[in-house]
Amino acid sequence: MKGCALFQFFYPGNIRVMPGEGPFDYEGDRFVVGIGKPMSSVKTLSVNDRIITVTHDNEEGFKYDFEASRQTGDNQICNAVHRADGSIDVSLLVDTDNGHTQFSSSCITTLVRIAVEADELSEVLEIKALNALNHFIRIYRYATRDTSIKEVGFMTGFKPYIVTGFKPYSKQDLMKDTDQRICELFDDWEPDAQRFTSLQPQNLADNELPNFNRAKSTGHIAHYLSTGDFPLWRVTLMRAYEMANEQDNYSAAVLESFIALELSLYHLLNVYRAKGNKIKKYGRIHGVITEALPNLFGKEVDDLATRLLRFKGIRNDVVHDGYKPTETECSECLSIAEDAFNYCDAKA
Length: 348
Description:
Blueprint: E1 3-11, E2 20-26, E3 29-35, E4 39-47, E5 51-55, E6 62-66, E7 72-82, E8 88-96, E9 101-118, H1 123-144, E10 161-168, H2 171-174, H3 178-188, E11 195-198, H4 214-227, H5 233-245, H6 250-274, H7 285-297, H8 302-321, H9 327-347
Antiparallel strand pairs: 1-9, 1-10, 2-3, 3-9, 4-9, 5-6, 7-8, 8-9, 10-11
Helix pairs in contact: 5-6, 5-9, 6-8, 6-9, 7-8, 8-9
């Protein structure tokens, strides 16, 4: 190893542990995590504003600035809560002189540092550090039951910023064991901002989204709002899509959607029982797919039943064998689920 990389995550949340450092192994690498004291911070939403380039003293260069004025106007509205420890939780609305509105609120930021040995900085190494952070957060959530702290993929609103540096090892460093030399760096090294990463979601244009049409989507939204045609399975299905598309958690997406699908199929049988159909009780979903649905709907359900068995097979592999479905398999399962949900709605 040529040196040690230190990733400083400015995490927008109060991670409630004693400050300090600790080593751990994760996915074949040795990491050290360091937790700092909570820091008072301010989150700001600046409406009708942009970050723009402006001239610099150096004629060949430029710098960035805010387009809207930061001079406050006369109109300020404040909500404040005085806490027992003497702090104040504040939400502030400020109108600037040029009509620009700025919303701000007090918050807590925790500095989480993740160190790992490497030959150089890279995107792959940053992903490893981010995965290590999420591993720490999963353990923290379980140990504290503090569900307000979330893995980065599950966060909404503000997400962490990462400032990264790299410290080459000297010959003396290499003579020490791994934990010692990494921990010593925590004591005396603050990295330069050699690499800065924002984990905020990108501002994508419509044409950067696959198969997206704003006018068509607006029409769908109007239909669902005006007709009330929005069963709860659609909420569950979107949670599964979120797990797949934003968190790359294809196993969870498959399981979430299959559980909802099971409930929908059993509900469909209960609807037909209430109509007077004699349908036996099924303890397993396999019987519902291979026997109950064909008995009720005949040949028309053959193709859907075949696809449901395919979905069930992937789900069983995940549950019983620890199989990790591919993105393509997950997308196929979610498509089957949506078709099955729509079929159940049409038949209920």
